[in-house]
Write a structure and sequence with these properties.
The protein is α+β, with helices and mostly antiparallel strands. It has 9 helices and 11 strands. The radius of gyration is 19 Å and the shape is globular. Bound molecules: flavin mononucleotide.
């Protein structure tokens, strides 16, 4: 997959055409999940189920920001066993599936949910695995006017029809630091220009979808290593924070692996003092 291109093409779409997604496309997604999908922790058992638009009513009140359920032709649900890094792994996998959907010209949107049991009951599911992610997908409405979210805070989210635009995101300069957290001097020299793999990988990371678009993380580039740091965020709950981390790790790894082969994220903190403040934690590191 051309990760750089798919990451730039992707955006959350919340209004869909009334057009069926062919069975062959659904089979292709399932096949990709089983045989090609990138996994952060491959030993964790995961499962994908795809449902049609008929489950929208059942999910009403159980999924979406403030229970604002998005109507879509299809819903992809990712289940996982509980293990260390379940949610980070789920974010990584579900985002890889979203980029696969993007490659297939399908649009999508992450959907948050509160109570797993409520969703399982509504859909009459009795898998022993645990629901980790819901993705609404289908063919997005081809109009310049789309539903956009005006996220002021978790308790103030307006959905209104406005001219389409991309959610503003943190730039590389606010996301990446050199040697110590907060140090911007020298970042440009270390990353290089738009032609460099590292620049493209951090750019891809900056375009990651995140819960309420909060992007509660950053990176420290130290020596030949990159460490992902989680920033505490009052609006982001624990599970969403971990899904966000998995997503941003996938974006970074996807682009690096395009030109430098497989990139492995080592979970946990590196053995280096990164000068992290109290509200920041090193989550994972990789060697370039
Ligand atoms: C874990 C997670 C949960 C999300 N839940 C919802 C949701 O319930 N409803 C919604 O409209 N968007 C949801 N989103 C989408 C984000 O709001 C979106 O990614 C963000 O605003 C950035 O916009 P973009 O995806 O177009 O780049 C979620 C995203 C993530 C990562």
């Amino acid at each position: 997959m051309d990760y750089s291109a798919m990451i730039q093409n992707r955006k959350s779409v919340r209004a869909f055409q009334d057009k069926e997604v062919p069975g062959s496309a659904l089979a292709e997604i399932k096949e990709y999940f089983l045989n090609n999908c990138k996994k952060l922790i491959p030993s964790i058992d995961t499962q994908v189920r795809i449902f049609g638009s008929d489950v929208k009513d059942a999910l009403e009140g159980a999924a979406g920001y403030e229970q604002l359920m998005i109507g879509a032709p299809c819903y992809l649900l990712l289940f996982s066993e509980y293990a260390e890094y379940t949610a980070e792994n789920a974010g990584f996998i579900a985002e890889d599936l979203i980029l696969k959907l993007t490659e297939m010209d399908l649009n999508s949107c992450w959907l948050t949910f509160g109570d797993e049991d409520q969703v399982k009951k509504a859909l009459d599911l009795n898998t022993p695995l645990h629901l980790q992610a819901i993705i609404a997908f289908g063919y997005g409405k081809k109009t310049s006017k789309l539903i956009r979210l005006n996220i002021k805070s978790m308790s103030k989210i307006d959905a209104e029809v406005k001219r389409e635009y991309y959610s503003p995101k943190l730039g590389i300069n606010d996301l990446v630091f050199a040697e110590k957290w907060g140090r911007k001097d020298g970042v440009d020299d270390l990353i290089g220009d738009m032609e460099s793999m590292l620049w493209r990988a951090f750019y891809a990371a900056s375009l990651s979808p995140s819960f309420l678009n909060r992007q509660p993380y950053g990176f420290v580039l130290h020596g030949t290593r990159v460490t992902l740091v989680r920033k505490k965020d009052v609006y982001t709950d624990e599970v969403s924070a971990k899904l966000d981390l998995g997503i941003v790790m996938l974006h970074f790894a996807g682009v690096v692996s395009q030109s430098a082969g497989r990139l492995t994220w080592n979970m946990g903190a590196p053995d280096t003092d990164l000068g992290l403040p109290d509200d920041c934690t090193a989550v994972a590191w990789c060697k370039l």
